[in-house]
Give the backbone structure.
Amino acid sequence: MSDIQNIVKNIQNIMRKDAGVDGDAQRISQLVWMLFLKIFDDREKNLELIDLKYHSPIPEECRWRNWAENPEGITGEELFSFIDKKLFPALKGLLIVGDHSSSLIVKNVFTDSYNYMKNGTLIRQVVNKINEINFNKTNDRHQFGDLYEKLLKDLQSAGNAGEFYTPRALTQFVVEMVAPKLGETVLDPACGTGGFLVNVLEYVRKSKGAKMTQEEEKELQTSVHGVELKPLPHLLATTNFMLHDVENPYTIRRDDMLSKPLTQYGPKDKVDVIVANPPFGGVVADGTQKNFPKRFQTKDTALLFLVLFIHLLKDGGRAGIVLPDGVLFGEGVASEVKKELLEKCNVHTIVRLPQGVFSPYAGVNTNLVFFEKSKPTKEIWYYQLPLPEGMRQYTKNRGITSTEFEPIRKWWKKRVENNFAWKISINEIEKKNYNLDFKNPNRGTKVEHKEPEEIITGIENAEKQITKLLEEIKKEL
């Protein structure tokens, strides 16, 4: 176990002693706002060496170095009172200097953040542990960047917080297949913790290699955009960007892209690439559907985001997104949305993922859908990604890995039908009223045997979904 891993493990153990912190989601939220301030302060130390006139947007007494850096500094009730009555009010109330200012980033991070810890002595212990990490050291930063990914994965078991995380192997594969280039604008309109966008940064940097100049790096950082509605994933995404060497992560914006009428998104809002795992299985706020043309009006978040993606892509733009099976076989408004997609875009590939990729948060079957906004779809290639030999389902401790995508990578450029790949013509799709739920015709029907516990859990989850839908119907009536 690395030193950084030991530090984070010790921090989590300290937090468990505090009565104010309840569960993984609160623990991670608490840890990340503290890390944000430490990373921000380490970066400011670099900026001060480069620019003698640099002025921090954070009030002097609230800068990490002035209340947290000294291991013998304030502690106990004095530290708790400082955080509760001075630090948070000051950061939430920062004056905004400009649209892309660091003051706006700090304020957005702290607007809905909370100090869950109530014991000032334990807070001091956590702060002192965080001070053992130097984010100006490349090795420390990279080690922590890898560990941060594990922290995000831990959110999968933290109730609804699991919706913010998409497995890294999946985001890497999607980005690799979409292949964003330097100079292209990239957007994730529901970016969660920023996994897709971090992979875009890494992919473009790797493709440029050592030849990448400072000007090109700046161009990359300003062309990768994310939007996230909820405060916790927004905080996690902003910190994720900083850990991946984004100097000023103003391109991670706190907003709801569905809350604005579709017609208000003009040419300046259009992008070259969209990579996303839009929220599914939920419903939007009352009235949101009226922001869309009548034939697309629904409360289903995945469908509305799909309409938004089609609208936001430039001609020639491309997308790689996650969609649940429900969208593929859905009728009514779902059929209208898919008709729009197939008429305006070339949906060239659908990868059918194995069960449990998003377990334990979501048990629904999911797909990777790749399309280009160019000409209408004539045919769609399907690829059924099998579970590894001997496995019945992915679990929290054994998730999907990058290696499992290797057969698709090899197949991608030289496509032929095989036991896992087949293609469907647009005529067949139209005959089925735009139902995209085509099963693999090249393999025999396999009976899936589940453990009794799995069956019971599935029934319980289905009952919860039914109850939720009935409540929504009651509200509508």
